[in-house]
C-alpha cells in the first residue's frame, strides 16, 4: 500500500468516526483543508520533473476524489441519522384517540348571579348596573353617610384620583350607589307625568356587581360581589320585604322548609334595619343561624336623595353577598378558591 492509499483509508476512518456534522468538518480540514495532508502533497509537486509530476498529480487527484466521495457519503449518512432521530421524536401514534378542545363554562359566582337575576326577574325586578369607580356623594352622602359619620370607617376602601376637593373618587364599597343612580334616572324620566298628577311607577330593581373593601381572609376578599335590592312605592311596607326575601331564599336554595329571621340591627341608609339570618332544615349546616343579608326600610334622607318625597314614597332595601350565597349553595368553605383560578376546582361547576 502506497502513501496515497494509506491517506484515503485514514480519511475514511476519520470520517466514519465523526458522529456530528461539526466533527466531520474538523476531519475534512485535516485532509482537504488549506493545511491538510492532501494539500501538502499537492504543494510538493513543484519539486518533481514533468513526467513524474503528471503521474504523481494524477494519483493525488484520484485520492482526492476518493476522499471527497467518502466525505459526501458520510455527510448523507449523518443527515439520514438526524432525520430518523427527528422523526422518532415527533412520531404520532395514530391509534390514540383524538385530543378534544376543553369546553369552558361560567364561574360559580356568575352562575349564582344569573340565578339571582332570574328569580328576582320573575318578581318584576329590573337589573341595574353602575360604575365601579364611584363618586363620594353616591357611595356615601346620598346613602345618609356624611363625611363625619362613624359608619364610614367600616367601609374605608381604595381611593383613586379624581373627584372634587374633600370628596374623592373611590372603588365602590357596595352596589347601593346604583340604587341612587337608577332612582334619579327613574324620577327624571317620569317627572312630567308625576307633576301632571299621574302616579309614578314603582322603582323595583336589583344591582349585582363587584365591590371593594380592605378585607382579606377565608371568608372575605378585597374584591367581592354584592347584590343590592330596592323597592320604592307609595304603599311598600316591611311586610313586603319579608315576603319577597323569604320567597327568594327558599327558591334559591330550593327548600320550602328554610327558616328566616329578621334580627334588629343598624344601617345608616335604612330605618328600621334588620340583619337577615337563615336556618337550613337539614344537611351539614342544619340548626345553625347564618347571616346572609342586611335590610330595612329606606331612610327618609335616602328617599330625598333620590329626588322623592319621603312623606309620599316609602320602600325597602336589602344587600347580600353573592360570594356567600355561592359558598352556601355549593358547600365551599374558603372564599379564596373562587379567585385562585384553579381549573380543578372550577371544572366541578360545569
Structure description:
The chain is of the alpha+beta class. The protein has 2 domains: 3-89; 108-349, BirA Bifunctional Protein, domain 2. Helix content is 42%, strand content 21%. A 7-stranded mixed β-sheet has the order 1-5-6-10-9-8-7, with helices on both faces. Strands 2-4-3 form a 3-stranded antiparallel β-sheet. A hairpin with a 2-residue loop joins strand 7 (259-267) and strand 8 (270-279). Helix 1 packs antiparallel against helix 2 and helix 1 runs parallel beside helix 4. The chain is elongated and about 130 Å long.
Terminal Cα span: 81 Å
Fold-level CATH name of the largest domain: BirA Bifunctional Protein, domain 2
How much strand?
15-25%
* Strands in their spatial order, largest beta sheet: 1-5-6-10-9-8-7
Shape: elongated
Q: In terms of structural class, how would the helical and strand content be classed?
A: alpha+beta
Oligomer: single chain
Rg is 42 Å
The CATH level-2 architecture of the largest domain is identified as 2-Layer Sandwich
Helix content: 40-55%
* Quantity of strands, as a count: 10
Count of helix runs: 11
Number of domains: 2
Q: TL;DR of this structure?
A:
This protein has 11 helices and 10 strands.
Present the secondary structure layout.
Elements: H1 3-17, H2 21-32, H3 37-43, H4 50-89, H5 108-122, E1 126-127, E2 133-134, H6 136-139, E3 159-164, E4 167-171, H7 176-195, E5 203-212, E6 223-233, H8 238-252, E7 259-267, E8 270-279, E9 290-298, H9 300-305, E10 314-321, H10 322-330, H11 343-346
Parallel strand pairs: 1-5
Antiparallel strand pairs: 2-4, 3-4, 5-6, 6-10, 7-8, 8-9, 9-10
Helix pairs in contact: 1-2, 1-4, 2-4, 5-10
Amino acid at each position: 500500500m502506497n502513501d496515497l492509499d494509506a491517506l484515503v483509508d485514514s480519511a475514511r476512518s476519520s470520517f466514519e468516526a465523526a458522529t456530528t456534522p461539526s466533527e466531520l468538518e474538523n476531519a475534512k480540514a485535516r485532509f482537504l483543508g488549506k493545511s491538510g495532508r492532501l494539500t501538502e502533497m499537492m504543494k510538493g509537486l513543484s519539486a518533481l520533473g514533468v513526467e513524474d509530476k503528471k503521474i504523481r498529480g494524477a494519483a493525488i487527484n484520484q485520492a482526492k476524489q476518493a476522499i471527497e466521495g467518502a466525505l459526501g457519503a458520510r455527510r448523507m449518512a449523518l443527515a439520514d441519522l438526524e432525520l430518523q432521530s427527528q422523526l422518532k421524536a415527533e412520531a404520532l401514534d395514530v391509534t390514540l384517540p383524538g385530543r378534544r378542545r376543553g369546553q369552558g363554562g361560567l364561574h360559580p359566582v356568575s352562575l349564582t348571579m344569573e340565578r339571582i337575576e332570574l328569580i328576582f326577574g320573575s318578581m318584576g325586578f329590573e337589573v341595574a348596573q353602575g360604575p365601579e369607580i364611584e363618586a363620594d356623594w353616591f357611595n356615601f352622602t346620598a346613602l345618609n353617610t356624611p363625611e363625619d359619620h362613624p359608619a364610614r370607617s367600616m367601609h374605608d376602601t381604595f381611593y383613586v384620583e379624581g373627584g372634587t376637593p374633600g370628596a374623592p373618587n373611590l372603588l365602590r364599597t357596595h352596589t347601593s350607589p346604583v340604587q341612587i343612580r337608577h332612582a334619579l334616572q327613574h324620577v327624571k324620566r317620569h317627572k312630567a307625568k308625576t307633576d301632571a298628577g299621574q302616579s309614578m311607577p314603582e322603582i323595583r330593581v336589583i344591582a349585582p356587581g363587584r365591590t371593594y373593601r380592605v378585607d382579606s381572609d377565608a371568608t372575605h376578599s378585597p374584591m367581592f360581589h354584592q347584590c343590592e335590592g330596592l323597592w320604592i312605592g307609595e304603599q311598600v311596607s316591611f311586610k313586603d320585604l319579608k315576603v319577597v326575601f323569604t320567597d327568594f331564599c327558599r327558591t334559591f336554595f330550593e327548600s320550602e322548609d328554610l327558616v328566616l329571621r329578621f334580627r334588629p340591627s343598624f344601617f345608616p341608609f335604612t330605618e328600621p334595619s334588620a340583619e337577615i339570618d337563615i336556618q337550613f332544615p337539614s344537611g351539614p349546616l342544619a340548626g345553625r343561624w347564618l347571616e346572609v343579608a342586611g335590610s330595612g326600610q329606606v331612610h327618609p334622607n335616602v328617599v330625598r336623595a333620590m329626588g322623592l318625597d319621603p312623606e309620599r314614597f316609602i320602600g325597602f332595601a336589602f344587600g347580600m353577598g353573592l360570594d356567600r350565597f355561592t359558598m352556601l349553595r355549593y358547600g365551599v368553605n374558603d372564599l379564596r378558591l373562587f379567585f385562585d383560578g384553579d381549573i380543578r376546582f372550577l371544572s366541578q361547576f360545569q
